[in-house]
Amino acid sequence: MGYISLAIVAFLVVFASPVVLATDTDPIPEDRSKIPQWFHTNVAPYSKRKGTLDPALDAAEASRLIITVNQQGGGNFKTINEAVKSIPAGNKNRVIIKLAPGIYNEKVTIDIARPFVTLLGQPGAETVLTYHGTAAKYGTVESATLIVWSDYFMAANLVIKNTAPMPKPGSQGQALAMRINGDKAAFYNCRFYGFQDTLCDDKGTHFFKDCYIEGTYDFIFGRGASLYLNTKLHAVGDGLRVITAQGRQSDNEQNGYTFVHCKVTGTGNGIYLGRSWMSHPKVIYAFTEMTSVVNPSGWKENLLHGYDKTVYYGEYKCFGAGSHLEKRVPFTQDVDQNEVRPFLTLGYIKGSAWLLPPPKF
């Protein structure tokens, strides 16, 4: 074969299997119907992303291991904890734990030495992780039904609950469903149920898509840098109810919560979008439907008046009866198109280097 023919073959080999590069700058579209295409373009599967991801993740995805859990038998294990403990410390491979439908009454912790773990439920089936831990017994952040310390975690098609009763004032009855403390974690089609402090979005970069989060007070809290897409935020109970207590403590911290194409629902009309648990919370709602349950002032008055100058609360092109800005507290940010753009891209969570779609069951 001559040199010209060899060159043509090489050209065809290279361009027949293009590497798809995710982008950190392509904003989520305002038109909700375009979200699937945006996601397909920017969060392509590993088969199209080889060589473009974090090196450790690239290597892990190349060597997948599947473990099955079925309480009725027929799987590798009968409990989630048994499956997690079977993963060696220092794990370097993607381990997909496939869960048969059912209710798993377990308190599960995935420690920092076991990265690259996926908990995968069956689409369309009820796969429930549930426990009843409370702050009185475990401490607030250790009360969670599922605690993840490790990096590159993923969960899909799961219901995660804390079934402890709604806490009474001063009872130390806070009860978490989930605590995510690892970096570069993704959640797809997951539902989180609790009352006070349902989801501790504590530390690291995180992505939530097509999820549901239910609670009463501070039911999303912590220091995470997180993007919530097409997620329903539902407040239950009565009295004072607050969705977010984002824990940023200085302008130097690169964290905050962004809610894009989400929906706020509940009962009554006293739900606040957030409060200043710490001095510098950063929370943005964009293209989000706010029903009449949202308090007209939007955000809870700051614990300290000095926080009026340090909180960052923004709303951009939200809609619904609870979205009107006329009566909002004066410390709400007036966010324009240029200011909101960084909050609408994967760059907010540096997602192009690690974010992948969920695996098929």
UniProtKB/TrEMBL annotation:
One of its GO terms (molecular function) is pectinesterase activity. Residues 67-351 form the Pectinesterase catalytic domain. GO terms for biological process: cell wall modification; pectin catabolic process. Residues 1-22 form the signal peptide. Its EC number is 3.1.1.11. InterPro entries: Pectin_lyas_fold, Pectin_lyase_fold/virulence, Pectinesterase_cat. It is an enzyme of class 3 (hydrolase). SUPFAM superfamilies: Pectin lyase-like (SSF51126). Keywords: Aspartyl esterase, Cell wall, Hydrolase, Secreted, Signal. It is found in: Secreted, Cell wall. Pathway: Glycan metabolism; pectin degradation; 2-dehydro-3-deoxy-D-gluconate from pectin: step 1/5. Belongs to the pectinesterase family. PANTHER family: ACYL-COA THIOESTER HYDROLASE YBHC-RELATED, PECTINESTERASE 50-RELATED. This is pectinesterase. It comes from Arabis alpina (Alpine rock-cress).
